[in-house]
Structure to design on (1079 residues):
């Protein structure tokens, strides 16, 4: 596991308590943080939702699998799924190697942009991680 | 590398062997084939196929293939197998011989009762033995494995509730499961149509009455509980919990995975348990066979007896008969009468042990406590109290040197041991769960303890030894990630000479 | 007791080490209200010799000495001594599930080979490491198809083994909103598919079916796929696949079966070996263990258990099944049997089965029996018996011969077929022409 100081936590995106990130302007991409990918270890499979699926805030939209674990993904925003990263079907490891770039998971059309304000910024997320340590 | 331990099973001959279909030549055979003595007939052409393109091998080729493969395996006969919650005790050889007696082995399951009184008597008596050993009313041998016994138990509980709903009892949709449970418990609950309600572990390592009382609502069918639990601790409040669950209209399923700890010491009937499953392949000494077959008979209280799967063997005078008129039964769970061959072995074991079954539990508990005492200085023991038949350590003392539970487990392989159960139960971070069983002698325990202490020393002095382990095996640590990302589940079988 | 190694001195020394006064003191943590207060009411412990004598007496009345001309899901086939001899090697028999691949390569390679050989037999892409038996494999196939199609109607042929259908019903009973539809038999002993409609998740067929008749799986597949469902096809007699097209070739999406015929003793019905195979696209929905190829950190080829995230120990309440222990050693034994008999031997033996069944059938016809239908059969078939056969059958039982299964006792499970005088017969390569002639001679003698 990485030390906290070694984590990459960009400050131009928002974070949910359970380690998903979402970009703050369109396209609204959702993925998992460097902390999450590191904690899960090498991913072997990403279960993606179907495009068009309506999500409530906090609703499960997929799972990440490693050889020994299955972790649900929860949507940090409400809205409709407009795209999924189909590259992950063949290369789930992109979530590990590039969690904020090629390892994005879904794009969403937010139902309520004010929900962004309820999420953590980079500093708040790091603080949360420190507290949990 | 200096090797203080030179155990059997490692470092000897490790021969290579091809895949089966890379051997052989078309036209060979490893078996006498029956030649036709009657006129040849044919099926309509449109339904005919080519048959499977399996390779043809000689008898020696087959013998050598599997003999070589076997040398890459580690069994209870090879060395100590301290797998927590798996009860890898010695598998007596006489039991194998008894199950192979032609009178049993060649018996067709649909023989009329007068033809198979001996087989039926064995079923009848073993069911009674199993009920007696836990103090319950009746038993069924139909379930084919532990998880199948769990399913049987929960289907009976579901059927009991459905029957009560007819007279106005509320619909039951949930079941309580402590978070120390084996994964089979929640999976079984789902298969039985229930939703799992998690019961958190109390601070002392067992579940608490007050907690269960809060969760035991009108829509809860009951409780699934493993006792002793997977931390190796006896559930202190269970009898009171069961009484409360009954009072609230629920039933209690006990997971019998850990029965080896308590035979003769605990009375499940007195505690009020409604159904328990046995793993005959744990408690009753039948071999695990590299994954199965097991057998998962259930024993039940009088409440659930009418719900047992059928048909059942009953005794009428001195004749054994099949009883099929079972209106409340959950129905059939197996093609025939369950894992009869496994039952023969368990029956043989029980008859060999008699009252010594209690002593087996006592020695299993003694062995586990002995290991706990001898190792608790070197390894972190999250619940430092007397244990039952298994004890749970963690890697907390080794973590500073970047040595993990996995490293410890893999290093034990090089030292000639099957690793303990690791990373389970989930409620303990990086658990190392040791269950020695009663069939290990004091000298063997002392050797295992010495090996564990050696590993602890290495973790401080040469942690790289642990990171690299195992090194003496046919293969070293496997790349399971790539195996799961690009699964290859069948071989590229090309058979020479195939049309 | 020879399984308990502790001497009195060992016990004393160990009790001192753990700080307990006696063995019973180790159990002080058990609350009084949970304790057992009486000894076991069990027979006195037996020596190895007494045990052997006792079990031999039971086995003498176990039924294994009967000559049985009935299959119905349990078949006598020759098993070369080689197979149980190799399978009994304790490195295989006394090992655990191969979760530690470094010391389990023997089991893992053997199961990988098993998965491959069975996939070729049934015409599917993948096969799991085994289920308990044919009936439970079939029930799991139904659950699997419901997950894949997200539908809740299971259609099953009424000619699937009645016991297997009972197990299916037991598995489906507690699940909300699941409908189980049974298709009746047609007059020729094949499933009448005309009633299949609605939105079935799956159509479950057995071929050869319980009456021994080879079904038209292709037509079944076409019918269910037109409704958007899957075809799950199975068998209780794998030797039939030595001669007939595999279920995969005929359009099955999932294949289940019982492989007792392939090297396992009948053993009064268990343990047997459940087979479950499917197309690659359904791999995340198949229950049970899977062995896959892998490399170690040095790049050396080997095998591991893989895709375990489907299973109960990881996914818990959301696992595809609760199965844990399977029929691993039976799968190993079966692999050894397939290796021993070989593809050529398997086809040759299947042909002998077909021929002997035809020989017995024509012999019975000469004695006044009438075939139930003209549909093709393999080594099992139904005949309508002459009036006095019930009495003949009873007389043969006194000779320890079971000459057919009286289907009138199964009438409730097989509605729509006239079974009053129908008997199900089976014969394999374990019966010689001489033995069949002797059977026919006995039947010919009358009551």
């Amino acid at each position: 596991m990485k030390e906290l100081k070694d984590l990459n936590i960009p400050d131009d995106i928002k974070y949910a308590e359970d380690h998903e990130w979402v970009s703050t302007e369109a396209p609204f991409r959702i993925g998992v943080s460097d902390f999450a990918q590191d904690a899960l270890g090498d991913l072997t499979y990403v279960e993606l939702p179907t495009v068009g699926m309506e999500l409530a805030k906090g609703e499960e939209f997929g799972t990440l699998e490693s050889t020994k674990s299955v972790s649900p993904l929860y949507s940090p925003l409400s809205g409709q799924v407009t795209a999924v990263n189909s590259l992950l079907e063949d290369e789930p490891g992109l979530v590990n190697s590039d969690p904020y770039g090629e390892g994005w998971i879904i794009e969403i059309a937010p139902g309520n942009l004010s929900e962004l304000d309820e999420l953590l910024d980079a500093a708040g997320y790091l603080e949360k991680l420190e507290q949990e340590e | 590398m200096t090797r203080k331990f030179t155990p059997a099973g490692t470092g000897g001959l490790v021969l290579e062997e091809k895949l089966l279909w890379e051997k052989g030549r078309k036209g060979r055979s490893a078996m006498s084939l029956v030649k036709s003595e009657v006129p040849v007939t044919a099926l309509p052409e449109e339904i005919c196929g080519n048959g499977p393109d399996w390779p043809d091998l000689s008898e020696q080729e087959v013998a050598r293939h599997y003999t070589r493969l076997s040398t890459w395996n580690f069994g209870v006969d090879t060395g100590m197998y301290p797998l927590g919650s798996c009860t890898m005790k010695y598998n007596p050889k006489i039991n194998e011989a008894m199950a192979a007696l032609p009178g049993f082995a060649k018996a067709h399951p649909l023989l009329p009762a007068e033809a198979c009184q001996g087989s039926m008597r064995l079923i009848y008596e073993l069911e009674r033995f199993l009920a007696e050993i836990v103090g319950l009313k009746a038993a069924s041998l139909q379930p084919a494995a532990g998880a199948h016994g769990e399913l049987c138990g929960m289907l009976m509980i579901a059927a009991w509730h459905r029957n009560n709903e007819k007279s106005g009892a509320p619909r039951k949709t949930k079941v309580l499961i402590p978070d120390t449970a084996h994964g089979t418990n929640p999976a079984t609950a789902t298969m039985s149509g229930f939703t799992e309600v998690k019961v958190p572990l109390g601070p002392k390592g067992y579940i608490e009455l007050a907690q269960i009382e809060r969760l035991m609502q009108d829509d809860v069918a009951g409780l699934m509980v493993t006792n002793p639990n997977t931390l190796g601790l006896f559930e202190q409040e269970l009898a009171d919990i069961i009484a409360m669950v009954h009072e609230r209209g629920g039933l209690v399923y006990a997971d019998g995975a850990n029965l080896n700890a308590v035979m003769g010491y605990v009375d499940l009937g007195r505690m009020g348990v409604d159904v328990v499953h046995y793993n005959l392949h744990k408690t009753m000494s039948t071999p695990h066979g590299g994954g199965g077959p097991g057998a998962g008979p259930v024993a039940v209280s009088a409440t659930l007896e009418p719900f047992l799967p059928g048909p059942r063997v009953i005794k009428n005078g001195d004749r054994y008969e099949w009883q099929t008129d079972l209106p409340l039964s959950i129905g059939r769970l197996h093609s025939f009468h369950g894992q009869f061959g496994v039952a023969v072995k368990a029956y043989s074991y029980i008859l060999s042990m008699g009252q010594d079954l209690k002593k087996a539990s006592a020695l299993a508990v003694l062995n586990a406590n002995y290991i706990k005492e001898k190792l608790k200085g070197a390894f972190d023991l999250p619940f430092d109290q007397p244990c039952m038949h298994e004890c749970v350590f963690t890697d907390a003392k080794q973590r500073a040197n970047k040595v993990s539970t996995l490293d410890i487990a893999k290093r034990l392989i090089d030292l000639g041991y099957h690793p303990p159960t690791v990373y389970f139960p989930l409620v303990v971070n990086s658990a190392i769960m040791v269950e020695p069983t009663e069939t290990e002698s004091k000298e063997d325990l002392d050797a295992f303890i010495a090996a564990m202490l050696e590993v602890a020393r290495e973790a401080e002095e040469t942690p790289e030894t642990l990171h690299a382990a195992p090194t003496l095996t046919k293969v070293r640590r496997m790349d399971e990630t790539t195996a799961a990302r690009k699964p290859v589940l069948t071989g590229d079988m090309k058979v020479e000479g195939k049309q | 007791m020879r399984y308990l190694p502790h001497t009195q001195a060992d016990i004393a020394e160990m009790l001192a080490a753990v700080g307990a006064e006696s063995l019973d003191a180790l159990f002080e943590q058990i609350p009084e209200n949970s304790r057992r207060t009486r000894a076991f009411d069990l027979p006195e412990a037996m020596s190895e010799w007494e045990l052997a004598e006792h079990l031999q007496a039971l086995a003498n009345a176990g039924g294994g000495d009967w000559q049985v001309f009935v299959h119905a899901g349990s078949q006598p086939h020759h098993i070369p001594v080689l197979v149980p001899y190799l399978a009994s090697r304790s490195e295989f028999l006394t090992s655990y599930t191969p979760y530690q691949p470094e010391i389990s390569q023997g089991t893992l390679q053997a199961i990988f080979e098993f998965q491959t050989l069975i996939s070729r037999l049934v015409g599917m892409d993948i096969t799991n490491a085994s289920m308990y038996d044919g009936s439970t494999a079939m029930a799991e196939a139904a659950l699997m198809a419901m997950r894949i199609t997200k539908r809740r109607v299971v259609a099953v042929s009424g000619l699937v083994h009645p016991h297997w259908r009972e197990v299916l019903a037991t598995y489906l009973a507690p699940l909300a909103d699941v409908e189980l539809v049974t298709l009746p038999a047609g007059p020729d002993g094949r499933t009448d598919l005309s009633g299949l409609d609605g939105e079935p998740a799956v159509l479950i067929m057995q071929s050869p079916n319980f009456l021994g008749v080879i079904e038209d799986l292709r037509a079944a597949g076409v019918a269910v796929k037109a409704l958007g469902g899957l075809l799950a096809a199975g068998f209780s007699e794998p030797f039939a696949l030595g001669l007939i097209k595999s279920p995969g070739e005929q359009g099955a999406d999932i294949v289940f079966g019982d492989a007792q015929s392939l090297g396992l003793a009948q053993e009064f019905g268990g343990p047997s070996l459940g087979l479950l195979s499917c197309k690659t696209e359904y791999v995340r929905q198949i229950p049970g263990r899977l062995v896959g190829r892998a490399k170690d950190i040095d790049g050396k080829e080997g095998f591991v258990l893989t895709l375990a995230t489907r299973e109960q120990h990881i996914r818990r309440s959301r696992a595809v099944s609760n199965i844990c222990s399977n029929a691993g050693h039976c799968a190993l034994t079966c692999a050894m049997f397939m290796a021993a008999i070989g593809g050529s031997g398997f086809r040759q033996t299947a042909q002998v089965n077909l021929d002997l069944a035809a020989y017995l059938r024509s012999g019975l016809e000469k004695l006044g029996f009438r075939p139930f239908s003209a549909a093709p059969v393999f080594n099992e078939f139904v005949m309508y018996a002459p009036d006095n056969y019930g009495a003949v059958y009873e007389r043969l039982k006194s000779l320890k011969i079971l000459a057919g299964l009286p289907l009138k006792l199964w009438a409730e499970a097989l509605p729509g077929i006239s079974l009053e005088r129908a008997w199900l017969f089976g014969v394999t390569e374990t019966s010689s022409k001489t033995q069949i002639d002797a059977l026919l001679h006995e039947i010919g003698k009358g009551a």
Summary: The domain at 82-337 of chain C is CATH 3.40.640.10 (Aspartate Aminotransferase; domain 2). Chain C has a mean pLDDT of 97. The first helix of chain C runs from residue 8 to 18.
